[in-house]
Inverse folding.
């Protein structure tokens, strides 16, 4: 199948990601079948889509006729069988529970037309395992949108072990043609089904680093966030953890502890906060206080002069060379493209670190590993040999 053959897309799950992806697809003129297990969930997703489009009408970004046409192309379903009966493409956007996703893929495979591509919007789960649950593993892949899809450009297009070149190409070209409220979507190819894919994998050692320097009493989170914000970032890393939810952050560390290294296991401070239900913004308190859900007040005068953001960049580059060695992606440029479009930085880690020289990056990673006692931070052979092209 080619991208131009894809006319009708089923979204399996009408939650924030599901209805957000549905919006992006509707904006591209696709017919959308929006499914969820209860009518109230479908209605809620449709209402949020309409409200979001109405804001764009108010801003004169789209017309009322555009809104009517796009919403007219969206149908709601509470029967998965009916939702996928006459489609070309399906995107599962259920919670990140592998057993649940496998169950959905079995049912989609049984009821969708034989030509249909089946995709999972997942940030971590194994595409290969989902493919095994079907009779069409060559037509199964991952499509990882970032939240919210109507604002974030990056889409990771992820190959499972059996995913065909045709499926990868059709999917890449499909999303390359789409736009959201900010501009064109930017797909990147992930050529190997590996934990965290590109964006989350590159940031995995950053999360471990931030957890460890806090655990070992080497930093004050407010001082770190003040430093990061002083160089132009709209939000510091510890506030970001709070904003996303410390429960979500802990689940991520547990997953990487199982799939990458036991060194990623949750730090004691993180476990205590989860046990105490101090989860960040959603609970009103986490690393910082969130009064009535409002952002914490960061004292910019406390910026830590000893915290060097280049430590983070060096760890990202080192992790990137692991992805290159593993064949997850073919180039440092593709990694930078993912990081720029998924994280909002004007430059990717390889572009930022190139001026240091790879020997300096290698030395920095070795020093961080020794200081914190974390082997995962040790530089790769690729980095030590300077075999990095961007």
């Amino acid at each position: 199948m080619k991208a131009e053959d894809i006319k009708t897309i089923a979204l399996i799950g009408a939650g924030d990601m599901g209805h957000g992806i549905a919006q992006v697809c509707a904006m591209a003129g696709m017919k959308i079948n929006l499914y969820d297990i209860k009518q109230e969930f479908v209605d809620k997703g449709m209402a949020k889509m309409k409200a979001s489009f109405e804001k764009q009408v108010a801003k004169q970004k789209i017309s009322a006729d555009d809104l009517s046409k796009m919403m007219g192309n969206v149908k709601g379903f509470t029967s998965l069988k009916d939702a996928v009966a006459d489609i070309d493409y399906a995107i599962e956007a259920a919670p990140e529970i592998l057993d649940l996703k496998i169950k959905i893929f079995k049912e989609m495979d049984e009821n969708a037309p034989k030509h249909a591509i089946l995709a999972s919007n997942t940030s971590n789960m194994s595409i290969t395992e989902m493919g095994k649950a079907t009779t069409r593993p060559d037509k199964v892949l991952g499509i990882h949108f970032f939240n919210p899809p109507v604002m974030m450009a990056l889409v990771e297009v992820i190959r499972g072990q059996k995913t065909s070149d045709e499926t990868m190409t059709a999917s890449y070209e499909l999303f390359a043609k789409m736009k959201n409220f900010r501009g064109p979507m930017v797909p990147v190819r992930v050529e190997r089904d590996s934990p965290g894919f590109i964006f989350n994998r590159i940031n995995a050692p950053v999360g471990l680093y931030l957890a460890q320097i806090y655990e070992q009493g080497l930093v004050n989170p407010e001082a770190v966030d003040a430093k990061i914000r002083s160089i132009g970032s709209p939000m510091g890393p510890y506030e970001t953890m709070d904003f996303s939810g410390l429960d979500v952050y802990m689940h991520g560390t547990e997953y990487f502890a199982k799939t990458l290294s036991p060194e990623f296991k949750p730090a004691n401070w993180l476990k205590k906060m989860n046990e105490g239900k101090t989860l960040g913004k959603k609970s009103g308190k986490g690393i910082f206080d969130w009064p009535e859900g409002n952002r914490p007040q960061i004292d910019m005068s406390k910026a830590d002069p000893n915290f060097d953001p280049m430590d983070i960049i060096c760890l990202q580059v080192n992790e990137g060379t692991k992805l290159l060695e593993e064949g997850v992606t073919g180039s440092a440029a593709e990694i930078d493209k993912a990081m720029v479009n998924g994280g909002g930085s004007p430059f990717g880690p390889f572009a930022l670190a190139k001026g240091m020289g790879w020997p300096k990056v290698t030395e920095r990673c070795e020093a961080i590993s020794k200081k914190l006692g974390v082997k995962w931070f040790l530089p790769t052979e690729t980095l030590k040999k300077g075999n990095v092209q961007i």
